[in-house]
Amino acid sequence: MNQKIMIFFCVFTLLFLTACNQSDHESPKHRNSNPAAESQDGGEEEAKNQNTGALPDESAPKDGTQTDDMDDDSELEYNVQPVRDENADWKDITTITQMQITVTDKKNNELQNISYSYDLSYEPAAFTGKVLLEDVNFDGSDDILLDLGRYGNQGVKYYACYLWNPAAKQYEEIPEFQEIRNPVLNSADQEILSSWRNSADSYGYAKYRWENGSLQMTARISVDYDIETMEAQMTEERLENKQMVRTGADKETIQKEWQPDTAMWAGDMAGKILYEE
C-alpha cells in the first residue's frame, strides 16, 4: 500500500514539473519577437521623453553670436555739418568749403569722422551741398554720396562716393566714382549707368560694374548724328583684357540692347538725404 502511494506521488510530481516547464516555454510567444520594432518603440518613447523639454529658440543665431551685439549699418547715425569760408561776407551755399560727416553707432560711439574738401577752382551749377545714403555697390549696405553739382556747358553731374566696409566698420573713399558722368543706378543688373552729351550731334553712354571691389567701365557706345541726314551712327566697345575693344555690333543690335533714347539714362541718385540746402 505504501509502495502504491509512493508511486502515485512520484507520477504526480513528474506531471506537475512537466506542466510548469511547458508553461515557461510558451510565454515568449506573447512577447515582441521583432528586435527592430522593439528598438523603434524604445526610440519613440525616448523621443517623447525628450520632447517634453523646452524647444530650441529658432530665432537665435546659428553661430552662437548674440544679436544685441551684432553691428548693422542700418543703425548707424550721421551728423553732417558744412564748413564755410571764414573770410566770406555772406554765408550761403557758395561759401561751403568742406563737409564734415560724423558716423556713430547705435550706442553713440564715434566710428569715423569724414572730412570732404570741395574743389574751389570750379564754381558748379545747381550745387546744394546735398549728402545722401545710397547702396552704390549693391551689397545691401548704405554708402555715402556727396553731390558735387553740375559742370560745363552740358551740366554734367558728379558725385563723391564713400563705400561702407563692414569688416573695418569704416567708410572708404572711391575716387574713381567721381569720374562717372551723370551716374544712375541700375539695381536690376547691378550696374551703374552713365550718359553725357559731347555736342549737339554727339552723345556717349557707358556701363560700370564692381569687380573685386573696384569700379570698372565694362562697355560704352558712341552715338553720332549726320548733320545733313540726321541719321545716327552707333559704335560699341566692351572691356576685354583691361582694354576697351570695338565689337562691330550693328546699329539695330546696339539700339535694342542699350535703348539710349529711354528714360533710364535720365535719372539721378535718389537715396535718403542727410543734408541739403
Automatic annotation (TrEMBL):
UniProt keyword list: Signal
InterPro entries in the record: XAC2610_dom
Superkingdom, natural source: Bacteria
Keyword check for Signal: yes
Keyword Signal: yes
Region feature Disordered, mapped onto this chain: 23-73
Signal peptide: 1-19
Record-given protein name: Uncharacterized protein
Species, as recorded: Diplocloster agilis
